[in-house]
UniProtKB/TrEMBL annotation:
Keywords: Membrane, Transmembrane, Transmembrane helix
Annotated region (Disordered), positions in chain: 1-113
Stretches that traverse the bilayer: 117-136, 142-160
Bias type Acidic residues, positions: 87-102
Biased composition (Basic and acidic residues): 15-26, 61-70
Record-given protein name: DUF308 domain-containing protein
Superkingdom field: Bacteria
Native source species: Arthrobacter echini
Amino acid sequence: MGLRGQEPNESTDDDIWRDLVARLEGTESTPTRTDSPGRKVTPAAEPQEDPPSEPHNAAPTDRERADRIFRNQPLQRRGPRDHDLPEPEPEPDGDDEDDGFVPEEPPPLGTGDPLTILAWVGAAGGPLTLLLFAMFWRDAPLAATFGILALFLAGAGYLVSRLPKHRDIGDDGAEV
């Protein structure tokens, strides 16, 4: 024995852990040693198990062990989604549609202010074109590079100038 009364390699935690796991799995745990002279580690009372519907000699599957663990709980709790919704009664006028909010039809794609679309092409396409020039056409003319840079600056400047200048007092700026 060491200074604290137990050898460093002797652990009561391992036996307790094995006993706990065995009780949760519903299997018989066998104590391997005693804690102190004259006192033997014994497992607690085994939980009541339902008789199996099919007799089999194989070890229980993971699903059966999990069912045994959760079936052994004192009270099954019900969550917010564990309730039955009442069936909606049909309306007497026969109108099954909801009279709530109906959004307006969105505008078709490709419509819009042509100048704004051109500004987006310049603002997004300018840096992308400059990146492609840097990777694949290293000796591109300086005039082409400056022209693309000017298109980017013009498109970004136009888009910034189109931003709203003022906000309403209670408006946070979010739009759907």
